[in-house]
Amino acid sequence: MSNDEKPLSSSTAKIPVKTVKIHPAKNGKERYKPGDQIYVRKNSGFFQRLRQRMNLVYFAFFALLPWLQYNGHQAILFDISEQRFTLWSLTLWPQDLTLLAWFFIFGAFLLFFVTTFLGRVWCGYMCPQTVWTFIFIWFEEKIEGTANQRRKLDQQKMSGKKLWKKILKHASWLFFSLFTAMTFSGYFSPMSELFINIVTLDTTVTMATILAFFTFATYGNAGWMRETVCLHMCPYARFQSAMFDKDTLTVAYDNNRGENRGARARKQAPKELGLGDCIDCNLCVEVCPTGIDIRNGLQYECINCGSCVDACSTVMTKMKYNQGLIRYTTEHDLEGKKVHFVRSKLIGYAVVLVIMSTLLILEIVNRIPLSLDIIRDRTELAKENFNGEIENVFTLKILNMSQTDNVYKLSVKGIENTKWHGKQKIFVKAATVHTLPISISVDPYELKSYMTNITFAVEQVSPQDDVIIEHESRFFNKR
Ligand code: SF4
Ligand code: SF4
Known about the structure:
- By secondary structure, this protein is an alpha+beta fold.
- Among the domains are: 46-242, no CATH class; 370-476, Immunoglobulin-like, CATH 2.60.40.
- The chain contains 15 helices and 18 strands.
- Helix 4 runs antiparallel to helix 6 (160-185), helix 4 (128-144) crosses helix 8 (205-225) and helix 6 crosses helix 8 (205-225).
- The radius of gyration is 32 Å and the shape is elongated.
- Residues 1-13 and 26-32 have low confidence and may be disordered.
- Bound molecules: iron/sulfur cluster (SF4) (2 copies).
- The site of one iron/sulfur cluster (SF4) has 16 residues, from helix 12 and helix 13.
């Protein structure tokens, strides 16, 4: 029974079921079962080169960005203890939550757009789990040899040589994991300080625990768990199929062209033997990092890395057949139907993306790097001072959210002839809060009711800038 469609029971009759025949591997067993060790065979080709180059750039950015300085501070720093994120000239505070919300919504729609258009390219080319797994496999190959050599080594009894190779492999993985953990921590704690603390073995217990956690998380994920993370832990793998349609570009095997599969001599014409183009060499399975056979159809385990595409293209070239038996294609293309790269779902995502990016830019451009909190004296809302005036006490918290030290002028409006008791010009260092206790007094004849709305204003006066914020409060009369 191959590729035939059967209706489900009446309650789910509209969902067609496609039954595919799972071909056993050449040794008569399924090559991969959950928990089996996968020995990924080394592979080369266009998509492998593309992935390696992208990964190199990606890794270089990851390793170098925490070292980058801008205007005397770390260019990118997500300082959780100080509750502020620095991105070059922009410092974000908890007050900038809407900006972060726009950013995350933008990221989500970008993911929807890319997944609908190009399938799981994120998984195959950019996901840290894939990038680090391939780096760890590189160490493995250098120390233990090819996939076959690694398989044989694992089947051998323990010997001095085997022990040495295993120690070397795990030491290299652990060292690289420590480097990853240190670099990753450098996004959350000033890198130069962190580096000195690590090399002088002078870290705090908290930092040492964080480093140990990320070191073992990297070692475990990229060294031991690998595809298990993609198959059983990654939520994206589970919901990405909801974004797929028949025009989504995915890696697929051309069943019509490939079947019947079977070995043949290069000179023999497949048609005469009743065969398709697949020579059943199993190479596409051996290079697959998730251990699946793409010839069994689209599977959620496939991370769209294109490794099987390269492997099969090499085989097709050697056999002097056309390339593309396994290729990036769409379901419509495989069915011989017209492919709609531009389609309503994609246009919808693109429109939302444009709106989101516009809102994000507007939010950044119009952002005022200054915040004011007003706390009233709750023990006594209003009191009468020695001059017979009504006085209210406030504590003003002025947060300089910019990256420069500034001078601010403070004022209040809403009631005529008020007197300000306390400083009216303050100097606030960059990224700090200035707490200022003040009081406002006024002749009782100026007060028309028990409670009057007033507005505090904070204006940046040095360096001169168009930064001003206002905050409403209330002034109380005595009962
Ligand atoms: S690499 Fe190509 S020819 Fe070889 S088994 Fe896979 S699909 Fe068939
Ligand atoms: S089936 Fe091909 S594209 Fe999918 S994960 Fe395996 S090698 Fe990568």
